[in-house]
Amino acid sequence: MSKCVHDHSRWGNGDQIGAAGHLLTPKTTLAAISLVKVGKIIDLSHIIEMGAPFMAPNQTPYIISSSATAQNSMKIREQMGATNNVGANLERIEMTTHVGTHIDSLGHFSIGEHLYGGHTIKESVGDWGLLDLGIENVPSIITRGICLDLSGLDGGDHLEAGRAITTDDLKRTYDNFGLTAKKGDMVCLNTGWGQYFMSNNEKYLSGEPGLDIEAARWLTKNDTIAIGADNMAVEVLPGTNHPEIMMPVHQHCLAEAGVHLVENLNLATLVEEEIYEFCLIMLPVKLKGATGCPVRPIAII
After folding, report:
1. Structural domain of residue 253, as residue ranges?
2. Cα Rg, the chain, nearest whole Å
3. Whole-prediction pTM
4. For a 10 Å CB count at each end of the chain, is N or C smaller?
5. What integer best gives the mean pLDDT of the chain?
């Protein structure tokens, strides 16, 4: 990995919106909408619930608890004079923003002290979140989605943990499905590993098939604005040079190329119905200063 790429951001120092902010245009939006023929919506996210897999110790579990119940709030309001039996239910949620289907902000990973766009961890990381490159900078995304079904490359129904997806794998899959890479695409990688989400979390977290660094570079070079996968990290775990080199795809995509990663996608329906090109809509929640956020991408066909 070059030590200088991150110092020469494609869109200049100080940039916060990355590839999605610069490559998505009214033209790409209209082209994506033109793909809609029957009006069917396919949800590409998982339910976020207690017990959802998370990578300790940096990630913490999803916990939901009632902060008010209808029964108790009704009693309180009756004591205040209310006569209409008014009850309300409220809850408190504790979680990292990287549990369940979620998108990474460009400030999520660094290369040493360097963040995307010439920002530094000293200047841009505060005690209460990111001062720069937080998830609130990600635009609303309506673009062409591509689903690359790589699950059968080795003859089974899924790739094994530690199996690196190469540039050649990507090119052959594009060709097999009659697809070409286009500027502004979000590319979704189906490895088959997603079958273990919530069905065998221990296995799901033990490693995963995913992109190697050269394949990631090939996608970003082709003006992909986001890369998603049916696994926890998009990239292969353990990596091809583990433990000497860890999480190079995150470093390249987020800190160098300004390309978002979307993790824990649910691509099963797309694959079952052999849908490989679609209109994708994804609206990240504007949690100021957050390094990511839960997201509910949908495919419309």
Report:
1. 5-48+97-300
2. 21
3. 0.95
4. N
5. 96
